[in-house]
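Researcher: For the record, we're logging two predictions in this thread. I'll number them. Prediction 1 follows.
Model: Prediction 1, sequence and structure:
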Amino acid sequence: MEWILLVIAGLFSGVVGALVGLGGGVILVPAIVYLGAAGFIDGITPQTVVGLSVIMMIFTGLSSTIAYMKKKTVDFKSGAIFFAGSAPGTVIGAFVNRGLDLPSFQLYFGIMMVFLALLLLIRKYLKPVQWFVRHGRKTTFTDASGTYVYGYPIWFALLLTFGIGFSSGLFGIGGGSMLVPAMLLLFLFPPHVAVATSMFMVFLSALVNSVTHISLGNVPWIYTIPVVPAAYIGAKIGAYLNHRLNSDSLVVVLQIVLLLLGIRSIFEGIY
């Protein structure tokens, strides 16, 4: 029974993660925590659930990146820059994770998700932050919906992604849940490029993150057997669906996912 639930959780995490660029950890982590608390899966702690999540994200990141490469929506230069900032942060976050108990983990995780959802919710009412584009490396992207000019100062991107990497190592969420809103709100990335580039960075960061969590003994290897293949297939489905939805739909999906998961996690952390 537990393997069936793990396959379902992995598949759904892969679909949603690749669809909106989250990496899948933001779905898998609360799902596994809930299943563990309900007694369906044994041996679940904040450390093991994060270890499982980062292993899964190697394969969801790889699967979706390959799919997005075929659509030519991955900004590899930006992804490499973001990875350079996030990699050291993931290592530090993984070590800090060792000191968290389950209620604290859920509470902090939920607060972060709600904050990100609210940022996206008010995005349309905020004046576009043109400063980052004017004072940074600029890139032009053209698709069927028009031409976009986006960009960022490299120094700021490195600082921002260091913080994102820290949260990724701490919570096992891949960093995409924070990077995508930042790319949309601050750097003015077109949504499809933001999602594709985020998944590329998720893949690279998950490689570094997994080494740290493996060395700490946080990975429940037996649970990777049902989760990883399901997540890999789900990521391919999510990448396919990404190009069937328009940009506004992608942002709405991202808002709903973050808000619902955040509220539930806060509730679980308090009660």
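Researcher: Logged. Prediction 2.
Model: Prediction 2, sequence and structure:
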Amino acid sequence: MTEATNYILNRGTSKGVHTLDKIRLLLEEFDNPQDKIQTIHIAGTNGKGSTTKMLAKALASKNKTATFTSPYIRRINEAIAINECNISDDEFVDLVKRLKKPIEMLDNKGYYLSYFEVLTAMAYIYFYEQKVDVAIIETGLGGLLDSTNIIKKPLASVITTISMDHMNILGDSIEEIAYQKAGIIKENCPVFIYPNDSVAMGVFSKKVEDTNSSSFTFSKDEIEIKQADDKANIFDFRNYKDVKLKLLGKHQIYNACLALLILDYFKKDFNIDEKIIKDALENTENIGRLTTISSNPRVIVDGSHNKEAIDALIDTLKSFSYEKLIIGFSVLNDKDYEYIIRRLSKIADELIVTSIDNPRAFDFDELSDITKEKFKAAITIEDNKKAYEYSKNICGRNDLVLWCGSLYLISDIINYQSED
């Protein structure tokens, strides 16, 4: 398994101009499995993972339901799953072996396939061969040119919240980013859209009109929030009353309403009812999103890594009780690090800066210097395992430790806690 994983990961990111040509050529070698399965395709800046988990939990009650998600937290197998069971090591290794020859053939012709393109192809092949009833597919980055967008006609396209992220690739305005996300909207397919700002919604409306699609959205005024604290979320939305969520944070209520919109639309097609839907939402978990990984000391992790996500995290923390807040973080170099540091420094009693083992990671010394400009007492520990141990050691009985800033960092922290 290690050899297969390394083979995939070592392919790195795309080289040259990014198009869908490479994955199209690869999947043609396997007779285009992506066009032989039913898919729900999800794009957006934040909320993709939680929305996917909610949809999958409900649909899997009566259907063989696949998910393709990223990034993974513990093991690469998590990216490809059916009914919440990850692809096995043997199945993963077998797929890699079968893909190697066509990949190398394309490499030699100048079509170098990236890590994510290969993983996407593996997912489509696996889901087709496993005869899934429906596959929920998350984009990796953007939408228009994302390798998952090789699908010709999904059952539905879904767009979650849009905010400024990956500007170096997707554009430096909401309009440009929304245009990339809208790339998953296909001819005559229903589109479910989170209520974004007017600029983004204008972009989506135009794409819906151009593709003769039908769109569905909601207003936050339609939601009655009955409870939103560190224990649970409870709310009413349209005909759904007293919906409970295990996922914490008011933003998860809005993600849940998007999921409800989709599930209600498809409930007859997939033989699910209101009870199944509500039970599924109540039991949905999404590790790495406001997840408690230790109760003594109390440690939560959250993969917030952009402005919108950090704002949602800080808003949610208002409902948590603690004496001292200890925050550990690091970010990738393509994120709005100044905003993240500024916001975290205002709420932290102790701020710990560490590193991430990733090619896009921020230079540790530079990040430390920038952080200390905003929070002079910041602690800098380059080894993130030692940084995590330090955060737990200084945590008092009524204190709270929060780790955030990057899902890659959160993955490491969760794995360290699992070792204890």
